[in-house]
Amino acid sequence: MSQNFVNPDQIRAWFSRAMSDMYKSEVPLYDTLLDLVAQVNAKTLAEQPELAAQLARTGEIERLDIERHGAIRVGTAQELANMRRVFAVMGMQPVGYYDLSPAGVPVHSTAFRATHEASLQASPFRVFTSLLRLELIADEALREKAARILAARQIFTARTLELAARFEAQGGLMDADAREFVAEALHTFRWHSEATVSLEDYEELHGQHRLIADVVAFKGPHINHLTPRTLDIDEAQAEMPRRGVSAKAVIEGPPPRKCPILLRQTSFKALEEAVLFAGADGQAAAGSHTARFGEIEQRGVALTRKGRALYDHLLDLARSRISGAPNEGNAAAYMQNLQDCFAAFPDDHAELHAQGLAYFRYFLTGKQGGDPEAGLQDLIAQGYLRFEPLVYEDFLPVSAAGIFQSNLGDKAQAEYAQNASQAAFEQALGAKVQDELTLYQDTQDRSLAACMQALGAQAGSPVAA
Ligand code: OOG
Ligand code: NI
Known about the structure:
Layout (H helix, E strand, L loop, with lengths): L7 H19 L1 H20 L1 H10 L1 H4 L4 E7 L2 H13 L3 E7 L7 E7 L3 H6 L3 E7 L7 H12 L6 H13 L4 H12 L12 H10 L1 H7 L8 E4 L4 H10 L20 E6 L3 E6 L7 E6 L3 E6 L5 H16 L10 H11 L7 H6 L5 E5 L11 H6 L3 E5 L7 H10 L15 H8 L6 H25 L5
Parallel strand pairs: 1-4
Antiparallel strand pairs: 1-5, 2-3, 3-4, 6-9, 7-8, 10-11
């Protein structure tokens, strides 16, 4: 019976927790980062009671400590399609398409995440998932070799795929199956210190692009970072070096603002890890690889198409004023440009709402007697309704490229023709990606409909004199 199935939101919450525990044991610096973020968040909430009240009204305060995203890179269409089936068991759907090739990274990506506000509230866990684009490798022999190596690996345990199939056939998993699924699926994301290729092959792949070696040379798509959410990324960035963590030079995304928009992110360098490479004579060869890094992020309000166009325009403007991408050398000048350019972006929730630049959720204030027939603006002006920013749940392509690059070393980046290919990505995925703007609009609409219904019920019931 369906009522005995575990809610996918619960499976996702378990999985997110298990992933965090595993990553803590694999990468001790992640624990340092969690500590740092928890301290900054506690301090921010204490110093900004208005922010604390806002996050309490939206419920975000309850999910803050469990909020994190991860990232993985897969090598083949089949791996991506199976990843979609595995994430579906956890109530995660592919949302959005990100083309990283213009930034010299031979991948395109989506974000697997929950889509309904109630599910996001239960567990906002998301995974930025990239598919290697072997077709962008110029060297044909190497391309074929990489494809051969990838075709020979299976990144899921047999049991994971069995349980995913059971989920599909039954429409859910019972408790014991769900728990087993979490433990089994976790194996796919582990770090393996033995490469599947020889040192020579690794070096050849690496010579094409470090990312290609990272995807092709290992047994599976190790989780390469897990990112907690901070309420003050400038403070967290300043705190990182004090704890012996070297952050990248520039915070990706918009500049600091009173009303945060979208997403700001910073990361620290990948760790060099010992790897054993396969030897032709059965003798392993010792070497190393940099795979895993750390990242923190601050999330702000989701922007409408109009708001996003303004964001993209201002970001372009700020970047056009420095030569090339921001780096250590021009970090201060870049941040100043960003501040200057974004002066044109309203920094006030009422203004963002009035100009239709951002998404909001509507809430009743508790004041009785509002006429549901009155317009939205009147109900707000008369104090029956209030609006709160709807948090951005997705990623940003330019920021993602910056995060990739800061962890791929400073070597000159490859140039790829700008050929975004959402259709090819969806074909590999075996499904269409959802449009994030539609999801935000739906949430906003549902919150308004609920308010109107409640006001209608109040109006329909006898009002106490
Ligand atoms: C993903 C980089 C992008 C983000 O938060 O934008 C990313 C990767 O390096 O695989 O994680
Ligand atoms: Ni990330």
